[in-house]
Write a structure and sequence with these properties.
The chain has a single domain, classed as Riboflavin kinase-like (Elongation Factor Tu (Ef-tu), domain 3), CATH 2.40.30. The chain has two helices and six strands.
């Protein structure tokens, strides 16, 4: 892990496959990969998220890297803890606070979902007041 933290960047939100929301029940905001800083290491991170035109700061879990369970392209996607946005924001500012773990391959979506739930709890412990 070589990414210096905290690290803040702003990215436009893009439409994803909605696999997180529909298949896993854990919706995510996908962001434009071109906006992710080059020094960012692949991994799962605890982060803070500011949505454009919204005064709230959200706690999030961010995935950056390959998506081996679905044999899909690289992505940067954030799940907001205890929050649901009615529509996709134009832009978000992400402050990456702490590295949680490396990207892993799992036997299937259910095993991945179980790990994401553990990541959410780890993030909650790190960033909740």
């Amino acid at each position: 892990m070589t990414t210096p933290l905290p690290l803040t960047f702003t990215a436009s939100a893009i439409t994803g496959s909605d696999r997180g929301g529909k298949e896993l029940g854990i919706p995510t905001i996908n962001v434009n990969m071109a906006a992710v800083p080059e020094e960012m290491d692949d991994g799962i991170y605890a982060c803070l998220v500011k949505v454009c035109d919204d005064d709230n700061i959200y706690i999030g879990v961010m995935h950056y890297g390959d998506r081996p369970v679905f044999n899909d392209t690289r992505a940067c996607e954030i799940h907001l803890l205890d929050s649901y946005l009615e529509s996709l924001p134009k832009e978000i500012t992400i402050t990456v606070m702490q590295y949680l773990r490396e990207v892993q391959n799992f036997k299937g979506p259910e095993e991945l979902k179980n790990q994401i739930e553990q990541d959410i709890e780890a993030c909650r412990m790190i960033l909740s007041d």
